[in-house]
Amino acid sequence: MAAKASRLSRFNVASLTLGLAFLYLPILILVIYSFNASRLVTVWGGWSLRWYQEFFNDRAMIDAAWMSLRVGATSATVATVLGTLAAVALSRGHGFRGRMLFSGMLYAPLVMPEVITGLSLLLLFVAFDAERGFWTVTIAHTTLTMCFVAVVVQSRLVSLDRSLEEAAMDLGCDPLRAFVMVTLPLIAPAVVAGWMLAFTLSLDDLVIASFTTGPGSATLPIRIYSEVRLGVKPEINAICTLVIGLIAVVIVVASLASKLSSDRGESAAPL
């Protein structure tokens, strides 16, 4: 039995190692080669920060990165507000008519292919003769990420003890003030985690942004994709390394917020 358990243990360790290597070894290679001094991507020429300097001197890339950050922050904020309100409606309004339809429409982007979502939004903007640019990309990303925020916040609201909010109303608070003063602080870690997730998804999106962007409003993923089509430059490795670092920081912060909620005996969707 001990030998069998040992074999199983070695098998599990090997499986975990291979799985992690499959997922993260390409990323590790990309990060290492971002410090490559050679102009050739596949030839190692020593350690250097040359391509990071090239990135910060590339005005088009900087503008695209700034556009992605603006779109991500704006769409994540709007999606967090709308997603939180939608989560409150779903968790508190069990008896209103059309709840099932509302829930299905809210969660549809979770399972719908991004190509269909992007094409649908493109046709909508064309029908309204809207000029494609910053706001069209922001609206599209808000549509994509709002459902993720609703899932995270609703998971916290479902297990929330409503007696605390009812006690506040018994003491003289109106429903809005009771929600702001009592419920919102309790669900704050889930709201923060939802914002971080929405920001990460917006920063990473390529498909929907390619349908809804316009001249002068290309996001960083679109810019990187257009550069890669002409050949991979070492500068791309540096840009991708910076993006990986930013996303890693966002995910760690969201995970810590979710863990803080769990340590307090609350329930937030773990990341």
Automatic annotation (TrEMBL):
Q: Which UniProt keywords apply?
A: Cell membrane, Membrane, Transmembrane, Transmembrane helix, Transport
Membrane topology, as annotated: Multi-pass membrane protein
Domain of life from the UniProt record:
Bacteria
List the subcellular locations.
Answer: Cell membrane
A Gene Ontology cellular-component term: plasma membrane
Family annotation (SUPFAM superfamilies)? MetI-like
> Where are the bilayer-spanning segments?
12-35, 71-90, 102-128, 134-157, 178-198, 236-257
Question: What Pfam families does the entry give?
Answer: BPD_transp_1
GO BP, one annotated term: transmembrane transport
Span of domain ABC transmembrane type-1: 65-257
Q: Which PROSITE patterns match?
A: ABC_TM1
Give the matching InterPro entries: Bact_Polyamine_Transport (IPR051789), MetI-like (IPR000515), MetI-like_sf (IPR035906)
The UniProt entry's sequence similarity note says:
Belongs to the binding-protein-dependent transport system permease family. CysTW subfamily.
Its protein name is Putrescine ABC transporter membrane protein
